[in-house]
Amino acid sequence: MRTVTLIPGDGIGPEVSEATRKVIDATGIGLEWEIHQAGLPAIETHGNPLPDAVLESIRRNKVALKGPVTTPIGTGFRSINVALRRELDLFASVRPCVLYPGVPSHHEGIDLVVVRENTEDLYEGIEFEEGSKEMQKLRGHLKYMHGFDIAADAGVSIKPISVSATETIVRFAFDYALRRKRRRVTLGHKANIMKFSDGLWLETGLRMAEQYRAVGFEEMQVDELAMWLAHAPEELDVLVLPNLYGDIISDLCAGLVGGLGLAPGMNLGADYAVFEPTHGSAPDIAGQGKANPIAMILSAVLMLRHLERPSEANAVEQAVARVLAKGEVRPGDIARGEEPATTQQVADAIVDAL
Ligand code: ATP
């Protein structure tokens, strides 16, 4: 029997995790869930939002399904999600965005995948606070060494982009495209403005593309990409983006296919995989049975594919698609004026459709 780590998380996490477990168990796959707390509940039990036991469990099982986790202020953690990605070297964040029939949207036929670099860029946390001694020193150094003038009342965040991390993520995007028989990889950047970070990203990406002639390739400025996504998202296929643009564009894509409640995701590295919805812990609706569990259920579908259980994965995805197409049971975030279904009712409808 296969064991996977389950981190219910906090906010709406426990509700959508419970619904997901119910659906996956109903396939008869017989997964063993090793449940570990992270986030707010782990502070209460362990005094630490990311206890060692969580990392040990994922290292043992190699695969985790994770609900959203809030990073409480004042714990010394910048972000639990960032810490988890770092500890497990989960260098790629992958967010498939599929528009299922019956989901309210301004578009049709969207089936794209956002591949986001997860380890560097403005997320490295190299920052200089406005008015600090360090900031003053940095200002002086940049003026003296390079003649750069930075406003006296500015703060600074540093954006490192390396050849090695770019090669890793671009190779991953092409391999993903090849494996899934996708048509084209679009590499987003802003190389005309940031020559030494995005410029290096673009140059490295172009060099990598030479090795993958079997997959279509194009490079696009990220602002133009945003325009295309708003105008004709069905024309785009696999997008590969540095960390910050990837964060923004993947939420934009979630919006195109029905919103955060429908957007699954996964974080992958060479050794470990953590599957989690794109949405956060949504404290405004937590504990009310209102949360849409589909993003988490579709994240579990991605996990089943990763575990090489395609028949169970397809069965769950088709059950979700049938419930969405029928339109009788819709959670509040995608309801069209009818009485919204509870988290539990959505899970039950998916189980019935299996
Ligand atoms: P984070 O910064 O952790 O990504 P966030 O503050 O951007 O989180 P989310 O928690 O992702 O925000 O959600 C934003 C809003 O979208 C929530 O307040 C909630 O109203 C809605 N939302 C998010 N996920 C769901 C869901 N699964 N079902 C229903 N509504 C949701």
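^ adenosine-5'-triphosphate complex. The longest strand covers residues 92-98. The radius of gyration is 21 Å.
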